[in-house]
Amino acid sequence: MTAPVPGKSDGRIGPRANLRHIGALVRRNALQIRYQPFAMFDALAMPIVFALLFTYVFGGAMTGGNRSEYVNYFIPGLMAMGGLNIAMSIGSGVNDDFNKGVMDRFRTLPIARSSVLIAKLVVECGRMLVSTLVLLIMGFIMGFELKTGPLELLAAVALAVLFGSSLTWIFMLLGMSLPTPQAVSGMGFLVMMPLQFGSSIFAPTATMPDWLRSFTEYNPLSRLADAARALTSGDGAVAEPVTVTLSWTVAITVLVAPLAVRKFRNKTT
Asked: Which residues form the ABC transmembrane type-2 domain (predicted)?
């Protein structure tokens, strides 16, 4: 029997079969986490570390000693940052899988090439949900007040995970384009640091210089943080930041996902 040719099976896979393949790969990736619990370390530890660090080290200075005020400002912003941190880790994982030959074995199977990446995306979205849940629990312990309702909170969480899913495509593409996991991590930090600190996540943008404030206005993390704050506090406009965030999510996914799937299909080393 002739072995399937990598990259040639996509057109022969029906939707139902594709869903079965995605489900099987999701289960495989989830079992990996079960048998390697340290893979959840970033999702569990980072929200706790960031919440404690920024609230008790910087929160008092930023709000004149009123840390409870900063908690209500910072926790929704940290929801926006969580997806970026989780997405960044997948790039190194994809690169390592290629270097170990795992992805080459997948590409010899008669499955849609997109199913491998979509399965990884689904698992990463699950990790984002867990990370956000840990963050919210920590936030409530530290005094975070939900001034709207559970539906608005769920909307904020869903928006953060949706945007994080679009970033996952970027880092999977980086993982397949760069030579080593270290290069992926280095490039990830170069992308992550300006987006995180040049935003409204940690501090209001009103005191920033004009050139930086102009950048923050177009930074999608700022719009996501503003949307999360509006949904959880009831203050400020909701429709505009939510619409902008969803627009960024759709645009990134539509532009990058096909590139990532094509790179996965054609990658030779």
From this structure: 38-267
The dihedrals phi and psi of 63, each to the nearest 5 degrees, come to -125, 20
d(CA 170, CA 173): 5
Render pLDDT for 30-69 as a digit per residue (tens, 0 to 9). Answer: 887 777 777 788 788 888 998 888 888 877 777 666 778 8
pTM (2 decimals)? 0.86
Cα separation, 149 vs 139, whole angstroms: 16
Pick from 245, 228, 218: nearest CA to 152: 228
Among candidate residues 200, 198, 173, the one with its CA nearest the CA of residue 187: 173
Distance CA 74, CA 53 (A): 11
Q: In whole numbers, what is the pLDDT of the chain averaged over residues?
A: 85
Nearest CA among 188, 247, 217, 233 for reference residue 75: 233
Is the pLDDT at 2 greater than 50? The verdict is no
Residue identified by tokens 């495509």 is 169
